[in-house]
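Board work, copied verbatim: Acyl-CoA dehydrogenase family protein
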Amino acid sequence: MDFEVPEEIEQVRDEIRRFGENEIEPVASEYDEKEKYPWEVMEKAQDAGLLGSNIPIEYGGVGYSPVENAILVEELFSIDAGIALCITSTAFGADAIMEFGTEEQKEEYLRPVAEGDAIMGAAISEPDVGSDVSSVSTHAEKDGDEWVINGNKMWITNGTVGDYFVVLCDTNPDASSRYSGFSQILIESDRDGFEADKITGKMGIRSSDTAELIFDDVRVPEENLIGTRGAGFMQLMQFFDETRTMVAAQGVGIARGAYERALEYAQQREQFGQSIAEFQAIQHKLAEMKTTTEAARQLTYKSAWSVENKDEQLTALASMAKEYASRIAVEVADEAVQIHGGSGYVNDFDVERFYRDAKITQIYEGTTEIQKNIIARELLGKGF
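↓ predict structure ↓
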């Protein structure tokens, strides 16, 4: 059993860390306050080879493994979750094309994302559909050699900046099974009838673009269908183990970033003639923050390793990692604010932003409650 991260991966980590410190940290507060998409940072991220990191080399990507991607995510989120999400989400939906798409779809849609010329998105949730994916009502009907799509999608990352989206649609409302009537269809944002309304006022990840998508008789060619008609739901479920693992890595990054800033502040801040780091109460907080963050990291790395090695416990591990790391992100960020005292309650210090950013990790890609349901189901079904 080897827990050592290979030297070449550590080198990647160091490069990502330097990018975050040099290009993200100085402007993170500005983009957060303005709820502005960081186009300038994205250009630099492309030059650094950070976009579309999971896209295979043959389509212009870096082809990072799940473990390498988890490290990339952790490093960027330890600097700023909002801009980090912008960087790591440019290829949202690409997994569906990589696994089920035609060679033509891969060339047409993956390469521009990997080369920084396009942004993707995945559109699943709807105004009335969150955790219950099988209740999606956005409808796609065949009309000759085209699909005609009507409906709404909600909380879509990259909604107003994306060039195309992998959209889960109901293509057979009369299907015998509630899971067999859905298909994934790629919809370009420049199609007639496509509208994206930016969602503002978010508590956290404010520089990341989020929108409601509206499809009003949007027409796309039949070749925009990804994979097999009616298999969309099952196709989608195959990727949740990896995407939830990456959210766990987000949580680890947020927790680590909050801990590091709390440690630095505690060593500098003086009260009663000494740094507050000399007080046992603060030492205990820091010790627990560091311990739980490291525990979350190890669980996340194991889940990432399992994605690549198809471990039979992967589904449970991914949900455990996502649930635990997101909880630790919230708890550590909370303690970081507490250590900062009144200074942590204003945006003069990063921990205020980390505190707001942490919460989303317990919501998207399946809520905490859903993760516990999955863990229990796997426990009772497999007895691991």
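The first strand starts at residue 120 and ends at 123.
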